[in-house]
Amino acid sequence: MKLLTALCVPYVLARGVFPMLGYPLVVNSAVYRFAWIGCLSVSLFCFCAKRCHVWFRNLHNSIRDDRYLIGRRLHNFGEAALANQNQNQSSEDAGDGVLIGREGDVDNGLRLRRAIQQEA
Question: Helix and strand tally (H, E) in the chain?
């Protein structure tokens, strides 16, 4: 279908539509000569425009997702989070490398090591 369009549209424009407009034979010959180059240029421009549109849309979505942290979980989100973390650390007993669960977690499957909590 694309090959048929690429061959027929320039021919129909150059031999059918353009001569009916009443231009001289020299102009019609020039239009016939450059019709395929012109259609190729237009189709190449449309292809590049579509690719750039997709690229900019993906870039915009990526920046938005990074800004609002879509699909990620916020761990440290302000003063209240630091106070909660300090309170949880002070109430727990000392043990290195032991997996512990925090009571405030919504997702109970996520567990942090004590060493990672102390570094943060």
Answer: 4, 2
- The residues with which 99 forms a beta bridge, in sequence order, are 113
Please report the pLDDT score of residue 71 as a whole number: 65
Q: Side chain identity at 102, as an amino acid letter?
A: R
Gap between the Cα atoms of 75 and 45, Å rounded: 46
More confident residue, 116 or 34: 34
How far apart are alpha carbons 35 and 16 in whole angstroms? Answer: 12
Average pLDDT of the residues in 92-104 = 49
CA neighbor of 102 nearest in space, from 79, 77, 75? 75
d(CA 118, CA 96): 10
